[in-house]
Amino acid sequence: MPGQSIDSVLKMNIFKLLHWFFGGALYMQSKKMKLADLAKLAGVSTSTASRALNNNPLIKEETRNKLQALAKKHNFSLNAAASRLRLQKTNVIAVLINFDAETEQSIDDPFLLKVVSDINLAVNRQGYELLLSNSYMAGDDWHGYFIDGRRADGVIVVGQGKQQARIERAAIEGTPLVVWGDPKTQGEYAIVGSDNYLAGCTATRHLLDRGARRLLFMGDPAHAELAERYRGFCDQISKEPEASASLLKIDITSLAAYEVINQTLLREGLSFDGIFACSDMVALGAMKALKERYVSIPNDVRLVGFDDIAMADISSPSLTTIKQNTRLAGQVLVDKLLEQLKGDKPDSAQLDVELVMRQSS
Amino acid sequence: MPGQSIDSVLKMNIFKLLHWFFGGALYMQSKKMKLADLAKLAGVSTSTASRALNNNPLIKEETRNKLQALAKKHNFSLNAAASRLRLQKTNVIAVLINFDAETEQSIDDPFLLKVVSDINLAVNRQGYELLLSNSYMAGDDWHGYFIDGRRADGVIVVGQGKQQARIERAAIEGTPLVVWGDPKTQGEYAIVGSDNYLAGCTATRHLLDRGARRLLFMGDPAHAELAERYRGFCDQISKEPEASASLLKIDITSLAAYEVINQTLLREGLSFDGIFACSDMVALGAMKALKERYVSIPNDVRLVGFDDIAMADISSPSLTTIKQNTRLAGQVLVDKLLEQLKGDKPDSAQLDVELVMRQSS
DNA sequence: GAACGTAATGCAAACGTTTGCAATAGGGTG
DNA sequence: CACCCTATTGCAAACGTTTGCATTACGTTC
To answer: Which of the nucleotides lies closest to A150 (Cα–C1')?
Structure first.
């Protein structure tokens, strides 16, 4: 009958469709192969398979190679969740961007992002993975969230912040922990950072050497790192009889810097001839304000920044600045964290900085 | 006897020591409390405890509150590894920074970092965590590594790259996947990105409107996104009879831009009066070279960038640019990924761009 | 008071690894 | 051939959750 023939055509197509579906598209996500399956395929026990994949010398090299080849052939990967559960170890390092109660806001300082990026490299080089987190996710109980929660084996905190209670608490509770911040701060935890005092001295001395006498510090000494830079700044100025200093306390953004320089110029005219900015972004904000009012850099005002972000080299005039070695920082941060995972209690570390002289001074 | 008394004193001290040791310092890292312990404390079964903490309405509200309070009191957190194993779900989204076989090198374009940062926000807002990864860790078999390996539930790829084989493969193998790139590219996967063609048109039209006639495009059309921008560029120029165009094919770095402009000026003099740079970093590199040779911006050369990074506003002259909405991009990327986790197959999405007019044009 | 319905809770299996210990194989020695 | 030694492999338990199903408690209805 005609009806039947149509029916069977339909059926055939449906079959084809199903075949394609299950044999093709869905085949890919068919039951994920587990270690036991791999073992069966190789004709060994799961224990042998496990050891073989982990390169355990207990297993004959021949067997090991065979299993590793088989695993590669079948795109087999171990279930990390299961491993972590069994081993009580995650092979993950959490990086915690630490902001002060700021409204949920993404990072805009390129320097911090660079630090994260360099930490990422160092973490990978050690065979760990990187969980990018922030106070929003981790809440206040960092130890509970990361360590007890088996989300990471240790934590790197980027940004000391103004209040260090949560860091201190996590450290006391036994969280393997390293902080990027001011290494002179005393606490229960290891801190890696530049020698901010020395850097402050160097930058200021450089300004003085260039003939500046009425100096400005732009930044907020409430931050531990900036406090050190400011201390170096003040110390150097006190050594120079004719030099005077003042402090422009601002948020660490280029916008704040731009505005405060504008206001200062309006109010007092050109009451300074040298600026030590606490970051390159601040320096560049200041530079913009100065240029708009036709203040010549470096003739009228010498300008030194901090960080050596990419823009420091591109701005015009290019920006003299203190270079922080983020690459090394990432390395050291991770090394110190891994030491803690081994049970040691590493000290804080000061990294050398470097004055990069460019046109702005 | 005297001997005994000494003995007992010793013993007492040892006891004290042990007490301090286990009751004090080590107490902190004493056996991590597990769900069963919490349940015992509350006098319920582990199943009830589990359900209570997960707010399962099967459990009486009173019991739920009690358990949640108890958990908070004891800083209890569920073992994520165990949950993930049992649930076959990680609640993690991997973000994969995709570079082209470049030597192990950290990102330096602030724009990409901004994208990552905005993705991070969006991911968190959905209650997921963010695994920051790269091709170095993930190898070629992304599906195996992330999905089968139960490291993440889905992947967001930042940077389409020049070769898309690995992306395609992962998509075919069923990886929930979204890419930040050129949404016009056809493929097995959803792509989110700006409308680069339109953006190219807008930027170029703007240059033409400002009177530029001999235009330069700086960038490498081998990248899908840049190809679209270039296409828009060419289309607009072809509509303007007297306008001419040329292409400076360079890496997307400010340094490359600086050098190529320098060379061009040396070789040909000022052979152009308008530049469309494929990124702000490129634009700023070009700007530096121009300023050093006293080419006036925007009088002699009008300059338009792309991205609207923070620096665009601070440079002087400030940089006219095409703003990409990274905030929204993060949101959309995550939304589309979550759709896939639900089983849907979302389409690519084009985001609107905006011409931000500043002094450079 | 038996039967039933509903709300709340408990039991036990399962997720996929890793590893201490037991077991086996194979080869050399007395 | 019995014995032992070593090199290799297998067995089974454990890691800490979640959840289908069974069970209990308790009030209601006939």
So the answer is: D16
CB-based contact B82 A85, cutoff 8 Å: yes
Taking the stretch 243-282 of protein chain B, residues with Cβ within 7 Å of any atom in nucleic acid chain D are: none
Domain A92-193+327-348: assigned CATH number: 3.40.50.2300
- Of all nucleotides, the one whose C1′ comes closest to residue B63's CA is C8
CA distances from A22 to A26, A27, A31, B171 (A): 5, 5, 12, 17
User: A2-86 in CATH: which number?
Assistant: 1.10.260.40
The protein residue nearest nucleotide D12, judged by CA to C1', is A47
Using the Cβ of B107 and the Cβ atoms of chain A, whether some distance falls under 8 Å is answered with yes
> Against a cut of 0.85, is the pTM above it?
yes
Query: B254 with B285: CB under 8 angstroms?
Result: yes
pLDDT at B109 (0 to 100): 77
Is A53 near strand C, with its CB below 7 A from some atom of it? Answer: yes
Q: Note whether B164 and B222 are within 8 A (CB).
A: no
CATH, domain range B196-323: 3.40.50.2300
- Cβ-defined contact of B90 to A81 (cutoff 8 Å): yes
Chain A / chain B CB contacts < 8 angstroms: 174
The CATH code for residues B92-194+327-333 is: 3.40.50.2300
Q: Which amino acid is located at B158 in the chain?
A: V
Query: Looking at residue A157, what DSSP letter applies?
Result: E
Strands A129-134 and B129-134: antiparallel
Instruction: Specify the amino acid at residue A46.
Output: T
**The pairing of beta strand B354-356 with beta strand B154-158:** unpaired
pLDDT (tens digit, 9 = 90+) per residue, A122-178? 999 999 999 999 888 898 999 999 999 999 999 999 988 767 889 999 999 999 999
**CA–C1' A142–D22 (A):** 40
Identical topology for domains B2-86 and B196-323: no
Q: Which helix (H) or strand (E) holds B256?
A: helix B254-268
Confidence of residue A109 (pLDDT cuts 50, 70, 90): confident
* Token representation of residue A247: 């402090």
How would you classify the pairing of strands A92-97 and A154-158? Answer: parallel
Q: Does B114 touch chain A (CB under 8 A)?
A: yes
For residue A64, the distance in angstroms to the closest alpha carbon of chain B comes to 20
The domain segmentation of chain A, as residue ranges, is 2-86, 92-193+327-348, 196-323
Q: Which of the nucleotides lies closest to A86 (Cα–C1')? A: D15
Does nucleic acid strand C have an atom less than 7 angstroms from the CB of A17? no
